[in-house]
Give the backbone structure.
Amino acid sequence: KEKNKVFKKQPLVVNIKALNLMPAKSTVNLETLIKHHIVDADDAKKYGVKILGDGEISLPLIVALPISKGARQKIEKAGGQIVETQ
């Protein structure tokens, strides 16, 4: 049991400091991350993406991806909002 745990698909990690490349008040989703060359299209569609809280963000953004608690706090502090995802 659990022998193939090492082969479990982990989502790609994007730290919030990378989101400073996005225009202010834009929606952050899989398509916009690919468009701004923050993640690779094939890998992002295969594994998914999760936003983590490393770094600082100064832009208000609308995030529609899975997100860590630390990243949520920093984005909301910068004036952004989180759209719940499944």
